Structures are given as C-alpha cells and as structure tokens.
Amino acid sequence: MKLSEYLNKAYRERFAIGGFNFYNLESARAIVQAANLTQKPVLLMVSEKSIEYAGLDSILFIAEKLKKESKIPFFLHLDHGTHLDLIKECIKSGFDSVMFDGSKLPLDQNIALSAELRKIAHRHGVVFEAEIGRIGGQEDSIQARLFKSDPAEALMFYDQVRPDMLAVAIGNIHGERTAEEQLDFTLLAKIQDTVRAPLVLHGCSNRAEREYKVAISEGVVKINIDTELREAFVEGVKKALQERQTDPREILNTASSYISKRVEEKINIFSS
Question: pTM higher than 0.85, yes or no?
C-alpha cells in the first residue's frame, strides 16, 4: 500500500501512523524492528541536522538496506525541511514523503512556497506535509515561542496548498515541556471541523495514552516522536555502562533495544 493510501485509510478509520526520528543505523534499525514486531508501518523520519550529521547518501543507504531486510513496509520522511534545495533533493532521491516547515515565514509566503513544493513532490509521487502555526520548543536549531494554529488561517492555507497532511500547533512542544503545557483539544476539534483533512501533531513525546487517543479521534493521522527516543537511547547507554559493557557494539545494541521497546509501545497505542 502506498503511503498516500495508508494515510487516507488512517483518516477514515481513525488511527495514526507513528513518525519516529532516527540519527544513524542503530536508531533506524531499532525503529524498523519495532515495526516488524507489531506488524505495522512507520515513518522513518530524518531532520536536516541529521542529514548534515550523517550525509544524505548514508541516510539513503541505511533506508534502502533496511527496506530489503524488513518484512513490513516503512516510509522515509524528511522532517522539518526548511532549505528548499535539500527538500527538492530529497524528493528526487527517493524519499516517500517530505515536510516543508514554512511556519516562521509570513503566511502568504508560507502558502506560496508550500504550494510550489507540493506540486514538485506530487510530480515525483512523494507525499507532502506542510505546517500552519508554529510549534513551541526546539526542533534542531530552530527556536520558537508557542504559537497555536488559527482555524480560519488553517482553512485558507489548506485550500490554497492542498497538502496531504497538515501539521498544526495546539500546545505541542518540541523537547522537554512543563506540566502547564497542555494540548488544546478544543482547538484541535475546531481545526478539524473547519479544515476536514488529515492532521499531524509534532512534539508528542511523553504524552498520556488518553491524549494520543483524543488526538487521533480528531483526525490526526501522524504523530511525531523524537525526544522520547533520545531519552530511551541515553537510558540504554547508561544501563550498558552500569553493567560494565565495554564492547561498543553491545552498548549500542542495548541502547537500540530501549528505543525499539519505546517505539513498539507507541505503535500499539497509535494503531489500536
């Protein structure tokens, strides 16, 4: 099944696909392992900073290698693309989906660039995600105050861009958050009632199962998890060192198992 078809199915039947960030072979393999254990597809997401770290050729090689090994399909996704040349390169290099984050731009410029990139993506059979409203916290080096999406602006944006997925801001935070930073489900419902389209939530690490379920019931088809996987990796490394493991391969295997377990838990919540 193509990603576009899977997303439409998720929207109709009210479940979500997990978007999980990876940084190297070990983290990518851990995510794909969880997908195979649960028999559910995932989005294997990479940020611009991770591409800068590993190199685009290495990212593509890792994805291609794992696709040959995996019994369950997964989809390679560019997360929070801001550099137009890189987004276009990812589209032409075999990514299954890309996200353009123009949320820091004036609305009219965000609309114009998003519409242009959507056309390019669709010409290559690539799913396109865009963002309206800015998400708090930090995505790589991007710092942002908390801006919530406006339903009227979201509708105007969606009507003019027609992305396959629309990322919205309802109090979701990248990175660590405080207890006061809660998701605004009333706003999410208003956005869905207004736009009536597949939505995406970024910055959704360490949320309660109930929160994920409510979001999915309001048409969220993709939920992004990054910070929680970083925390799991660090926890695994600490565990390995406590056990006095000295082989780097064993240390990485332990850390990867922690990531895989966390991803498996999330997949089971999102897909049920």
Answer: yes
The residue among 209, 272, 190 whose CA lies nearest residue 10 is: 272
Reading the block at residue 64, the tokens are 């291609």
Q: Is the CB of residue 75 less than 8 Å from the CB of residue 97?
A: yes
Predicted confidence pLDDT, tens digits, the chain (272 residues) = 899 999 999 999 999 999 999 999 999 999 999 999 999 999 999 999 999 999 999 999 999 999 999 999 999 999 999 999 999 999 999 999 999 999 889 999 999 999 999 999 999 999 999 999 765 454 444 433 457 899 999 999 999 999 999 999 998 775 555 555 689 999 999 999 999 999 999 989 999 999 999 999 999 999 999 999 999 999 999 999 999 999 999 999 999 999 999 999 999 999 97
Q: Which CATH class is domain 3-271?
A: alpha beta
| Helices and strands, number each (H, E), in the chain | 11, 11
* For the chain, domain boundaries: 3-271
Cα–Cα nearest to 110, from 88, 84, 91: 84
Single-letter code of the amino acid located at 35: A
Q: Which residues are catalytic?
A: 79
